[in-house]
């Protein structure tokens, strides 16, 4: 055999001369020489390619540096142009609307999108022009700012104290085009470093009308100036970010500056080791000239690609030489490696087959025709001898059987699915996967399955326990509410369907049975009662235990008359039960509340609350009776108040009470040194919705929660006084309402004074409001509390004045500082003569007593004008200010 192999691969012998001539030059030289020749040639070629690349890189670098310089100039101008566009938009607002106030200014500013992405943006401000005293120049003070937070230092700042700003303002006024100041340290930043260095862009503001054409008309119609403040560092760095700062050292100078002309210098240094070209660009904007100087850095542009070519070329040359050197031994090593891999593959296949045999799962292999060719040990023990049978024959249901047969025919598998597998002895559920595989070059289907029968049985048992009551085996409250929610949704979607009814059962005197005979007796009594009721239920209705001695019944397709008849029949059935325990006989009865489903928009909570209210009323009327829910049931109102009381307690515990403020605005000659606000209480419910006080305060007053609420308000306000209003510590007056229940608290004054002292809030800035009805009811207690608070410096306001019968009679006996006219008189003061007369009388009496007069509910401009004529000092209402959330709760 070996001789034959040798003959098969042997080559006929050649004459000696021919063999020498055929070897050629390649065979005459040893492999090491050829390797050195290839190495030298490769290195020479690499050097030439690197030289050419360095030449081309220099040309590309010059082109890139010029394009980066142009881009830097354009980007800087774009940022300044965006700021100028924003200024022009705000100027247009003044030309069309005339003089505007802070809220209007803030609203237009917030709607202005031009500054949203403006780098370095600090504030948009309006400085009003004030004529100077004779023989002196006018001055400009900042009055309108947006945003105000963080820029309070600018408020009322005189522009004439900033010469650079004033020069820019005057240029802009005369030319009606944006004017830019020299770089200066912004007033908002206390540290005199580069972080506070900035510029302002300005545009004039003219009085309402067309844009003036001449310098004289512009100066005559000047109202003030708009300004946008920009920090230079983020403005310039954002414009130059990216490849400009990556490849260039940037130096920006102000050619028109006196003294230090530096605007911006990048933190990088120019390339070392020789002169580098300096690219210069001139940027002219807003009557100023900026010079932009750019120098290349020690960049990768010069040498990276050249070094890469040298490195790669050298590496390739060395590898080619080594390849020639090692080619002789490569074939031998490859053969040896192949033999070792073959042996390892055979060993791995044996381990795989052994592992399959030991797996605690079914593993089956079937051919392309669906016939099983292999089954592991677990499959043989669980299914019997299945080799030779068809794979789809294992499935009982025709659906999975066809699915497996179809997958085998198309050689397409699928992920895990739950299916029933049938054996000669039993049927079980399994989680099955089917995948196409190739064995010995032929297509097969590999099936793996895990027995999940016990798991499915356990899941079914758990689902049943989760939805049923363990004692009575009825549905529990969770399942009942789910089915009730489904029924309500179905009825809303299809209102033409017959209505259904909810019957709410509550066993009468159930606690008595537990107390007399024990809880085991109570449980047994419930079981017997449920058995009696179940024998009298209609088919299809849902009966459930809702908890303790409460049960619910969903009666489908019944009208009101049929529902009441069913409830009465079940009541009599319960009443007929006689429960005997240890020789003692107990009679059983239940009160039943009935609610129909034909109420539009009813939710699960509504229906359950109505049913509970109807059941409660049935008990109130003597027990052992049926009551149909009516909308005018007083119980519903009482239940709603109890629910709100519970929700109020939860809101206090969980910190879900909120505070809004509404500004009190001067109307006539009254002058304020800062904002005057009244705090208004709100509540955030469990779903996150903000609830107005009319919904929860009556319940809080009925169930004695107002003292706790008032103390929470007082403590929260005084501990956050500087964070109530955007004016911060400049807030002049904060009004807090006190309820009648709090006035009756003997320790209220001590608590208020202790909070004022602890938080160091000036007492004269706090005003407590007491309603007229509370003052009349508890005149003596109110007077004592008022006198203590006023002695400490607090002010007192009499709220809802005029709503009582004896307002003018007791006013002289109450030591108050402010009276607030009841809003019912203000609402019609501009149309009703009687309301106007009453308001006029209150104003005259209040002023005679030296009191300030505030009008509530000022909701239109007509009412404001009348109140101004009548001499009312302050106004409060939606026409003057819409309530806003206090600053510290806005997040």
TrEMBL record:
Q: Which cofactor does it need?
A: Mg(2+)
Instruction: Tell me the CDD domains matching this sequence.
Output: EAL, GGDEF
According to its UniProt entry, this protein's organism is Luteimonas yindakuii
Q: Which UniProt keywords apply?
A: Membrane, Transmembrane, Transmembrane helix
List each coiled-coil range.
Answer: none
Q: What is this protein called?
A: EAL domain-containing protein
What PANTHER family does UniProt report for this protein, alphabetically? DIGUANYLATE CYCLASE DGCE-RELATED, DIGUANYLATE CYCLASE DGCP
Q: Where is the GGDEF domain?
A: 498-631
Any idea where this protein resides? Answer: Membrane
Q: Name one GO cellular component term.
A: membrane
Region forming the signal peptide: none
